[in-house]
Amino acid sequence: MTEDETPDLAADYVLGLASAEERARAEDRIARDPVFAQEVESWQARLSQLNTEFDAVTPPAAVLDRAERSLFGTPQRRRGGVLGWLRRAGAGRGTTETTVRGVPRPRFAILLGLAAVTTVALMAFWDMPLYRSGPPLADLSAPDLHITIHGDTQRLIFRRVSAAPDPEGQSYELWLIRDGQVASLGLLAPETTEVRAEVRAGDVLAVSLEPSGGSPLAGPSGPVLATAQIPSL
After folding, report:
1. Is the full-model pTM beyond 0.85?
2. Per-residue pLDDT for 73 more than 50?
3. Are 174 and 199 within 8 A, CB to CB?
4. Across residues 42-46, what is the average pLDDT?
5. Which residues pair with 158 in a beta bridge?
């Protein structure tokens, strides 16, 4: 192997794409070649940063169930989800594998490849509706406008049920009212609006009719069309 092949071999090794022969060569070089070992560690570091630009989001439980069925068929009675499956897969490789200069042996490459496949599957299912299928937390109803509200203490989903468009030159704006303080939650989208906000039981949600683009004031400038109080979450 030439030094020109070093980056490709290191990348294939970390991604789990190397053949058995290439993997053996890579492990031998990791043990005796500090430069190559550093290249492997560099690839590990690059891959570990793939998700740093995204906020952590807990997907609906159905996403993991559908991903497991798509990847592995009908799930068995054993619990633990995809992560549990990965742990069992790793455990099945035995416990004699070690690390060299902090770089995992083949088990790491196998698990990393499985994790990558799982991530792609989750992204494929991510277009499913964001609102819960159960009863809504509250409703906002006004002439030509009906909104159902789903969500939890960290996120609200406003689902616009009515099909009537916004009045010409005006927008609907959402508001959160707590202890007499009013905060805008943004404009209501044509279908579904997701709002990330810390809410609690007793908070009041409202919708007002504003000039196009939203209220120019710190609170509603137009008529408040409907309000609803959040029950126990």
Report:
1. no
2. yes
3. no
4. 79
5. 149, 193
* Residues 157 and 133 sit within 8 Å (Cβ to Cβ): no
Tokens of 150: 């789903």
Q: Sheet harboring 204-211: ordered strands across?
A: 181-187, 170-178, 204-211, 224-229
Question: What is the rounded distance in angstroms from the CA atom of residue 30 to the CA atom of residue 21?
Answer: 14
Question: Would the pLDDT of 232 be above 80?
Answer: no
Q: How many CA atoms lie within 13 A of 212 on its CB side?
A: 5
Torsion of CA 22, 28, 30, 35, to 10 degrees: -90
Query: Which amino acid belongs to residue 32?
Result: R
Tell me what pLDDT residue 56 has.
63
Instruction: Count other Cβ atoms within 10 Å, centred on residue 122.
Output: 15
Query: What is the dihedral angle through the alpha carbons of 168, 169, 170, 171, rounded to the nearest 10 degrees?
Result: 90
The tokens for 98 are 């070690």
Residues 6+ apart with CB under 8 A from 164: 144, 145
Q: What is the pLDDT of residue 153?
A: 84
